[in-house]
Structure formats: structure tokens, C-alpha cells
Specification:
The protein has one domain (2-100). The protein is 8% helix and 52% strand. It has one helix at residues 54-61; strands at residues 2-8, 11-18, 22-27, 30-36, 66-68, 71-75, 82-89, 92-100. An 8-stranded antiparallel β-sheet has the order 1-2-3-4-8-7-6-5, with helices on one face. It is globular, with a radius of gyration of 14 Å. 16% of the residues are buried.
Length: 102
């Protein structure tokens, strides 16, 4: 595990990296961003994980709010700076980001 400290989002950030496939960012002690880039058993509340199909993502979350290249973006209804991003390669989830998207 690697730990980094810096300032971001107007707060003190502590970043934990577990290998090269799981990253957590805490701002002032609160989890703000999670990144998963390998099938490791971690799933979204709707059961989507790295390796899930694009069809499964759309069945769980509907059409994305935005598509930027290979990233399918779903914003939180209450705050558009928060959401889920599914990076898609070969019609499968290659990476998941959740939390603050800024």
C-alpha cells in the first residue's frame, strides 16, 4: 500500500493506493473518490464490477448522462460533481470511478 498527502478540492487529501488497481481518496477524513481498475470483487450497489458488460451497466443505470470517449458518466441527481464513471473497452467495464468527478 502506498500513501500520499496533498491538497485538492479545497481540503487536505490522503490517497491510498493498493497495488495498481484500487485507489481511495479521503478529503479532510471523508471518502471522496474511489477508483477500481481490476476485477477484485468490489461492485457498485447495482452489482456492476470490472468485467461487467456495457449492456449490464445500461440495464442497471440506464443511458449515461454523458459519454466522453470511452467513459460512460452517470451524475448524481442532487449534485452533478458526484457520480459514477465506467470506462468501457471491448464492450466491458475496464475501470470504475465513483465519488467526486472534478
Amino acid at each position: 500500500m502506498e500513501t500520499k498527502h496533498h491538497t485538492m478540492w479545497n481540503g487536505e487529501v490522503t490517497e491510498y493506493e493498493y497495488g495498481d488497481s484500487f485507489e481511495l481518496k479521503f478529503v479532510d477524513g471523508y471518502a471522496r473518490h474511489i477508483e477500481i481498475s481490476r476485477h477484485n470483487g468490489i461492485k457498485t450497489a447495482a452489482g456492476i464490477e470490472v468485467g461487467s458488460t456495457l449492456d449490464a451497466v445500461k440495464a442497471a443505470y440506464g443511458e449515461p448522462d454523458k459519454i466522453r470517449g470511452d467513459k460512460y458518466i452517470y451524475y448524481c441527481d442532487e449534485d452533478k460533481s458526484i457520480g459514477l464513471v465506467f470506462e468501457i473497452e471491448n464492450s466491458r467495464v475496464d475501470e470504475i470511478e465513483m465519488g467526486y468527478l472534478g
